Amino acid sequence: MESRRKRSSQRLKWGCYILLLVVCTVLQTMPGLFQFGAAKPLWLLPLCLAVSAAEGEFAGAIFGAVCGLMWDYTAGRTVGMLALELMILCFGVSVVVQLYLKDTPSNFVLLAVVCALLVLSADWLFFYYMPGYAGAGERFLWVVLPSALMTAPGAGCSTVQCSASARNSR
Question: Rounded distance, CA 101 to CA 5, Å?
Fold first, then answer.
């Protein structure tokens, strides 16, 4: 049986994760905040990746699905597409971090940028390129690539990741 202290610390930790989820959602949906042309940084993606790297595959996958649902809802999109993408990505990132990569901030930034590029490229493919919109290639160059690269600063100072790397360096 778990002790009360451990259960209360788990509740506090997951409460902080939910609070960070709300804060990142507000930052990501605020119009004009940190916008560079048409590109905006992603805040929810590094958060769900950091939680999945710190908590394990299944907890990370569930948190990724919740982040994806929140992102879908606030963006006014088809509900479930990003939830499924983020659930699979978070599960995969957790497994890769546990088996192959050291838990360092530079590896996390690299993973966050690659995952952002994957998510945004899938978005571009299904919503711009396949329907045949004019200027879809320009949109990839001027929106998708800068948005993926703008994810790196948000991933570099992720609270969960910095605390995990500080814990591992002791």
Answer: 32
CB count in 10 Å sphere of residue 153: 12
Contact 8, 119 (CB under 8 A): no
Is residue 68 within 8 Å of residue 83, measured between CB atoms?
Answer: yes
Provide mean pLDDT across the span 91-108. Answer: 89
For the segment 70-93, the average pLDDT, to the nearest whole number, is 91
Stated pTM of the model = 0.82
Render the chain in DSSP notation, one character per residue: ---HHHHHHHHHHHHHHHHHHHHHHHHHHSTTTT-BTTB---SHHHHHHHHHHHH-HHHHHHHHHHHHHHHHHHHT--TTHHHHHHHHHHHHHHHHHHHTS---HHHHHHHHHHHHHHHHHHHHIIIIITTT-TTHHHHIIIIIHHHHHHHHHHHHT-HHHHHHHHHHT-
End-to-end CA distance of the chain: 29
pLDDT of residue 37: 80
